[in-house]
Amino acid sequence: MRHILLAIACMGITAAHAQIDSSLLRRKPRDSSGMLLNMDAVYQRPFLQAGKLPVALGGYMEANWQHLGTDGITEGHQFQMRRVTLFVASGIGRRLKFLSEIEFEDGTKEINIEFAAVDMEFHPLLNLRGGIVMNPIGAFNQNHDGPKWEFVDRPISATQMLPATWSNVGFGVYGKQFKKNWVVAYEAYLTNGFNDNITDNALGKTYLPAAKLNPNRFEESYNGLPMTTAKAALRHKKVGELGLSYMGGVYNKFESEGLVLDKKRAVQVWAIDANTTIGRTGTTITGEWVWIHADVPPTYSQQYGRGQQGGFADVVQPVYKGRIAGFAKSVLNVACRFEYVDWNTERFAQTGDAIADDIVAIVPAISWRPGAQTVIRLNYRYQWQRDLLGNPPARTAGFQMGVSSYF
Question: What pTM, to 2 d.p., does this model score?
Answer without folding.
Answer: 0.89
